Records
---
Amino acid sequence: MPYVAPADKVTGSTLTPAEFNLLADAVEAAAEALTSTTTTALTAYTLALTDARKVVETTAATAVTLTAPPNSTVAFPIGTVVGLRQYGAGQVTVVPAAGVTIRSRGGALKTAGQYAEAALTKRATDEWVLTGDVTV
């Protein structure tokens, strides 16, 4: 539910009421993501719409392939963030489905090790950005 700032909360602020409300929504989404988890022991997992604003936690002992699906299959809204956590020993490799692009610093698409956390953010229709504790 969108937060609507009372007028006295934005008076004297450099933010407009609309900007304040967007910021409050982002903080609420981040807090929700920290408390909602999808746990899987699978070694192959494709993101589902129900993973939006959650942490996908993998518990597999062997390598895990996590696929970012095309918008035509799973229409995540632009701006959606999905957290990733490698809880098991199996390193998670994030792969794009056909037609999808995943951008990351230095081309890093794997979690760095057990307990590593990362985030996938949908930037455009079939484009995601991967950040966090990731490696090549």
Note: The CA atoms of residues 10 and 17 lie 6 Å apart.
---
Amino acid sequence: MAAILSLTESQAFTALRAMLVGILPANVPVVQAQANRVAEPQAADFVLMTPVGQRRLGTNDTEFGDNIVTGSIAGALLTVSAIVQGALTPGALLLDTTGILAPGTVLGMQQSGTPGGVGTYAVTPAQTVASETIYAGLRSDLVPTELAVQLDVHGPGSADNAKIIEGLFRSGYAIDAFAASGFDITPLYCSDARQIPFVNDQNQVENRWVVEAEMQINPVISTPQQFASQVAAKVVEAAPDYTGP
């Protein structure tokens, strides 16, 4: 039962690219680097994004969710008709008291309906289950992380474009831009721009300025968690010859 990550590297790059596209001239492509057999953009000016490090910013903030719903499963789709307790999050371990649910059934991404509530969800493995009470246990670990991304700003306008990036990444503009992305990302700071010439495959020198952008990302790692709804206790008598310690 694999863990589920709420904020992926791809989503972080999507948010960063949206911020950069919003401040650079319209003819400046912004793409992710380290793509094999992919040529440079044909535009004179462009920006390449390369991840260079992740640094933990604190210990895990762990929460547990003991959620109860009413639902049925057809194939790989769970239909939730009512929320009895809590709210659903992908990665939860699904259990029942009837033994009908397949062992190790895990909740996937929501397909439709109210977020975390009534609606349809992907499940694995596929199965058929009539409407019943389903328990969806979940452990959530928030892992605050500093993500460093190197921005290689190429082209004849690279010095000006690097200054735009460096100037606005440290401002409230960047904070608002990342907030608008919908992802839990906050810009922290960036390095000063450095001019590092780039020699291309034709042995020609291209103008390149390098800026390292630092962002805080707050991914939540969800893993299945089993809960007990009740505890049965009983008294066990000591053996007759027991004399104690």
Note: Residues 9-23 form the longest helix (15 residues).
---
Amino acid sequence: MEDRILDALHDDEALALAADRLIEAGRRMDRFGWVPSYGGNISARLPDGGIAITRSGGRKGFLSRENVIRVDAEGRPARAGDRPSAETLLHCQIYAAFPGTGSVLHGHSVAATALSRAVADDHLPLAGYEMIKAFPGQLTHETTVRLPIFPNSQDMPGLAAAIAPKLPQDIPGYVLRGHGVYAWGRDVDDAMANLEAVEFLIACELEARKIGGR
């Protein structure tokens, strides 16, 4: 009985600490304009393998600990009545595919939303940018990485199944067309750095196309 009580206390503490990091991340994403209205969802892996994730509907720039809940590795809430983000399954998929991942961040920036609608291909090639070196394993700007663009869908199991065989290995992120960016990393800070890099590169591509008339 005492062991179960201690485990519950440790679980609550871990969730609170993860919530605090996600609150910071939500505020930063809000400052960039990446989570307007009730858009976006953010999560962190817990020490026991569970996931701390934002509730459905919360405004990410104004989160409190109450807006972050625990789900298991399949996305099932630990507490009856808790309603996680509708896209929780996509977070779970990334954690399962990349065991070293400690956080997943998803936003709805104007640049990602607009450019992904304008690009007909299933990926956005990014070449020659110094910022490419921000991604794990990328040592030079003299390379090309492909940022996947997946069709958006409200059918989460179907969307996850379509994404699964095409999850990128050379860049920790992808875009849902007309929707926004998913990015991940070792922890919340690393995921934020990767999200910033992806968003920067998308914004550069959008500006280049404006200038060049593409």
Note: The beta strands are 41-45, 51-54, 68-71, 103-107, 123-127, 144-150, 173-176, 180-185.
